[in-house]
Amino acid sequence: MLEEFTFTLLISVLAINFLISIYGIVYRRSLTKKLISLTILSDTVFVAIILAGLIYTYPIVPPVYSDMQGGEAEFLATHASDPLPQALVLTGIVIGLATNSLIAFGIIQTYRLTGTIDARKAVKTLLEEGAEY
Amino acid sequence: MKRVIVLVVLVLIAVVSSVITPLVISIEVPRYLKDLSRYYIINTIKDTASPEAVAAIVWDYRGLDTVYETLVLYLAIVGGLTIFMYTGELARKTPVGLTLLSRTATKIITVLISTVSAAIAFHGHLTPGGGFPGGSALAVATMLIIPVFSINTLLEKGVTSTKLVAIRGVSLTGLGLVALLPVIRGLEIVTNQRFYPGYLDGFILSGSISLYNLLEFLAVASGFTAVALYLSIPEEYYKGGDNA
User: Quick check: B76 and A102 CB within 8 A?
Assistant: First the structure.
C-alpha cells in the first residue's frame, strides 16, 4: 500500500507541476516567466522519464559494474535502475540548456528591439513601428 | 498569504489523489526491468567494453541518436551566438570584482570544479558521468568567475569567444570524424568495438566511448562558456554608446 501511495504521489505531483508550467507558458505575459515555466515543464518531463525507469526493489544500485569480468550481471539485472531513461535524460538536460540559452538570447533581443519583455506589448510595438530587422 | 493557500491546496490535491487512485484503479508498481534494459545491463561489457551501462547506451547502443543530439546542441549555440554577434573590441577596463573574501573562495572553488569536471568526463566510461555533465560543470566554473572577478579578467587571461568557438568547432569536427571513421572499413557509422580497441595496455578505453566523452567535454564546455561570455558583454556596446 505504501509503495502504491508513494508512486501515485510522485505521479500526482508531476501532474500538478505540469499544469503549473502550462499555465505559466500560456497565461503569463512576461517572456522571462514563460522561459522559467518552460524549464519547469522540461524538468517535469525529465523526472517523468526517470520515473519510467524506477523499479521498486531493495537494494537498488546504479547500472555500473565494479569489475570487468561481468560477474555481477545477474545481480545488476534484478537490482539496477533502468539505464535507458537515464541516458535519454543525460543528453536531454544539456540540449535543453542549449535551447534555453537560445531562447534567452531571443528574449534579450526582443527587449532591445521593443523595450519590453511583455509578450503582447512587444508584438504591438513591432506591428506599430513596422519591422526594421 | 494567497500563494501559501494555493500551495497548500495543491499539496492537498496531490496527497488526496494519490490516496484515492490506488483504491479506485489497481496500480502496478514496477518491480522488474524491461527486457531491453535487462539486455543492455547484461551485455554492456561484452558489447562495448564499458562497465557503465548508461555511457554504453549514450555512445554505443544509441550512439547515432547522441550524434544528432550533439548537432542540436551545436545549432542552438550557433543560433544564440549569431543573434548576439559582436565583432568590435571590448574596452579593457581594470577589473574590480567583488570582495577579497569572495575572490579567494572563488579561486579555490574554481580549481575544485575544474578538477571534478575533468574527472567526470574522463572517467565517463567507467563511472556515472560523461562528456555532457563534465562539460556543463566546467562551464559553471567560468560562469562563476564572470560575476565574482569580471569579464575583463577572463579576456586578459586569453579566454576569448573566438578561441572558444574555435575549440568547439575543432572538437565537434573530431567527434564527427570518430563517428565517421568506421565507414572507411565498410562498417556502420558510429561503430565502436569492431573498429576501436577496447583495451590499451591494460587500461580500459571502451573503444570510442572515451574519445567521444573527451571531445563532447571540450565542445560542451567551450560552447557554454562562449554563451556566458556573450551574455555578459555590457549592453552599451550593442547600443553603440559612449563606452563602446
Answer: yes
Check pLDDT > 70 for residue A133.
no
Query: What's the confidence (pLDDT) of residue B240?
Result: 65
Is residue B137 a part of any domain in this protein?
Answer: yes
**Interface mutation vs chain A, best among B18, B50, B205, most A CBs within 10 Å:** B18
Full residue range of the structural domain in which residue B98 is found: 34-239
Contact flag B18-A5 (C-beta cutoff 8 Å): yes
Q: Do B34 and A94 touch (CB under 8 A)?
A: no
Question: In the predicted model, is pLDDT for residue B244 greater than 50?
Answer: no
Residues of B in contact with A102 (CB under 8 A): 76-77, 79-80
How far is B154 from B137, CA to CA, in rounded Å?
17
Collapsed DSSP state (helix, strand, coil) of residue B36: helix
Domain residue ranges of chain A, discontinuous segments joined by +: 2-129
- Reported ipTM exceeds the 0.90 cut: no
Do A91 and B231 lie within an 8 Å CB cutoff?
no
Burial, B236: exposed, middle or buried (Cβ in 10 Å; 0-12, 13-18, 19+)? Answer: exposed
**What's A2-129's CATH class?**
mainly alpha
Q: What is the value of pTM for the model shown?
A: 0.89
Residue B229 forms part of a structural domain: yes
Residue identified by cell 517535469 is: A44
